[in-house]
Amino acid sequence: MPDDLYHTDILAWSRAQADRLRRVAAGERVNDVDWAHVIEEVEDLGKSQLAGVESFLVMAILHALKVTAWPEEHPAVQHWEAEIANFLTQAQTRFEPGMRQHIDGAVLYRRALRQLRKTPMRGTPPLSLPESLTFDPALVLGEEFGTTDLLDLIRAA
């Protein structure tokens, strides 16, 4: 297998490495496992999955902030509410319990608030929003948690 397969065809590389690792796990001596890249990819996989969940949560919070800042008078409120539901569902689907200890709700809220402040909105100025919000990610990532729950959490802050 070419040494540059990792850089030219990651899918073929990953399949070949998985096959080799299965052989190692079965007790076979395999000398051509690309250990450096396998280790890097395993590490990146965890980071990537966590980043995905966090990204969906930030987007849900961002849209909830829009609804909170421009309640009902803005023509996009229903769209924003639908987006909150979608982003929460995406985060909840990808969430694994072990991620909980690595997700900081306050940091995600600050990211969303910063992003909102960079978003140009025309018309009515926004209502006041809480500067900070701390929440347990397990609560927000529970299957029963939805759009109204996130809006209530922000409004109560």
From TrEMBL:
Give one Pfam family, short name only: DUF29
Name under which the protein is recorded: DUF29 domain-containing protein
